[in-house]
Automatic annotation (TrEMBL):
It comes from the Bacteria. NDH-1 shuttles electrons from NADH, via FMN and iron-sulfur (Fe-S) centers, to quinones in the respiratory chain. Couples the redox reaction to proton translocation (for every two electrons transferred, four hydrogen ions are translocated across the cytoplasmic membrane), and thus conserves the redox energy in a proton gradient. The keyword Membrane applies. The chain crosses the membrane at residues 6-21, 28-45, 51-78, 90-112, 138-160. Residues 181-200, 247-272 are annotated as: Disordered. This is NADH-quinone oxidoreductase subunit J. InterPro entries: NADH_UbQ/plastoQ_OxRdtase_su6, Nuo/plastoQ_OxRdtase_6_NuoJ. Its EC number is 7.1.1.-. Belongs to the complex I subunit 6 family. It comes from Nocardioides taihuensis. GO terms for molecular function: NADH dehydrogenase (quinone) (non-electrogenic) activity. Pfam families: Oxidored_q3 (PF00499).
Length: 272
């Protein structure tokens, strides 16, 4: 009884938190608290099979699947109140009332003392008695539950399927669209230059160098440019100078000298 009075408030608080938290990941973590507490209660009631199933199947598999789906797909914060399936509110009210009736009947049997009791049910062992009940008295309910789970999986696949609204692009259509963009806006029809081409470091944050030695801005991802992790132009000065020398151009130092000389001569002419 001590374990129950300790875990019961935690389970109720976590269950209420599932209803009021805004983020779906937080709701999933609170659901994990409820499931783990419920597994401990199963163990306290001498039900080791349900204790193991609750942790391995529900908490370890199904709940982790929920978390992976939430993290990969994401959930929008805004909820739609439009009823897409007719009659789903009526069915929800009916299911809720049916669950309430089942809970009242269960509590009534416990209060009136008409339940069999765990000692009598676990007389030959908990796992053996559970297997005997499932595959003899409740075999049809067990098979219907398995069919319901398969139907739910198929329904999830149908709901997640998206029809293609436009025909799939072929290589010929992509090439035609590139030539059209080139004719209309002058966009280069070829692929983007890969990072590090004509540079000493073939890294993703190093811009590619054009034939004239300047850096190609299209060769670096916009995300890296926004983060400020792209290598600066002074670090590429040596590479630019090497490319200019290979093309027979003027080196950086000579360009600076010629620029200074032109400036000084222009100054002398102005002074004259």
């Amino acid at each position: 009884m001590t374990v129950f009075w300790v875990l019961a408030p935690i389970m109720v608080a976590a269950a209420l938190g599932i209803l009021f938290v805004r983020k779906a990941v937080h709701a999933a973590m609170l659901l994990a608290v409820v499931m783990l507490s419920l597994s401990v209660l199963y163990l306290e009631l001498d039900a080791p099979f349900l204790f193991a199933v609750q942790i391995i199947v529900y908490t370890g598999a199904i709940l982790m699947l929920f978390l992976f789906v939430l993290m990969l797909v994401g959930v929008d914060a805004s909820d739609s109140v439009v009823e897409t399936i007719r009659g789903q509110r009526v069915a929800a009210w009916f299911a809720g009332l049916l669950l309430g009736v089942v809970l009242v009947l269960g509590l009534g049997q416990i209060s009136l003392g008409t339940e069999v009791g765990l000692d009598a049910a676990n007389a030959g062992g908990n796992i053996q008695a559970l297997a005997n009940i499932i595959f003899s008295q409740y075999v049809y309910a067990f098979e219907v539950t398995s069919a319901l789970l398969i139907t739910a999986a198929l329904g999830a696949m149908v709901l997640a399927h998206r029809e293609r609204l436009t025909p799939k692009e072929t290589q010929a259509s992509i090439a035609a669209q590139r030539m059209k963009d080139y004719a209309e806006s002058g966009k280069h029809p070829g692929p983007l230059p890969p990072p590090g081409v004509f540079a000493r470091h073939n890294a993703v944050d190093t811009p590619a160098l054009l034939p004239d030695g300047t850096a190609a801005e299209a060769s670096v991802s916009r995300v890296l440019a926004a983060r400020g992790t792209v290598r600066s132009a002074p670090k590429l000065a040596d590479d630019i100078e090497v490319v200019q020398q290979q093309l027979g151009g003027v080196s950086t130092d000579e360009g600076r000298r010629s620029g200074k000389a032109g400036t000084s001569s222009a100054t002398e002419e102005d002074a004259t």
